[in-house]
Design a protein that fits this description.
- This is Swt1-like HEPN domain-containing protein.
- It comes from Amycolatopsis carbonis.
- Helices cover 74% and strands 0% of the residues.
- The longest helix is centred in the C-terminal third of the chain and has 24 residues, at 96-119.
- It has one domain.
- The relative contact order is 0.16.
- It is mostly helical.
- The model has no long low-confidence stretch (mean pLDDT 90).
C-alpha cells in the first residue's frame, strides 16, 4: 500500500507545482484548511485521490501523466482507500480479491512511472 501511495504522489508531484496544488485542493476539497495540506506529503490518501480525480484537475494536470481516462484511474486507485482503511483500522483482513486489486494497482502505477522515466 505504501508503494501505491508513494507512486501516486510521485506522479502527481511531477506535473503539479506547489501553487497548482493549492489551486487543485481548492477545487477538489473546498473548505480544506488554509495553510495545511499544501504539500503532497501532507495529504491523506483519500485527499490525494480526490485531488487527482477531480474533473478539472484531472484534465488540466494529471491526464497526460497517467495516460488514461479518469474512469480507468478511478477504478484502479479508489479501491486502495477502502482496503487501506479496512486493514489499518483493524476492521477486517484483506481478502484475496483485495490483495489482487492492490497488486493490479501497483503494477499499473509502476508501468506509469517506467513510461514517464523513459520519456525523460
Amino acid at each position: 500500500m505504501q508503494d501505491i501511495e508513494l507512486a501516486i504522489r510521485d506522479l502527481m508531484r511531477d506535473v503539479c507545482t506547489a501553487d497548482d496544488l493549492v489551486e487543485a485542493l481548492g477545487l477538489a476539497l473546498p473548505g480544506h484548511p488554509d495553510g495545511s495540506g499544501e504539500r503532497f506529503e501532507d495529504l491523506t490518501l483519500g485527499e490525494l485521490i480526490s485531488v487527482l480525480l477531480h474533473g478539472s484537475n484531472f484534465g488540466r494536470f494529471f491526464k497526460a501523466q497517467f495516460r488514461a481516462n479518469r474512469e480507468l484511474v478511478r477504478i484502479t486507485v479508489e479501491p486502495v482507500i477502502e482496503i487501506r482503511n479496512k486493514v489499518f483500522h483493524f476492521r477486517e483482513v484483506a481478502s484475496p480479491e483485495d490483495l489482487q486489486k492492490l497488486r493490479n494497482a501497483t503494477i499499473w502505477l509502476r508501468r506509469k512511472i517506467r513510461t514517464r522515466d523513459g520519456d525523460r
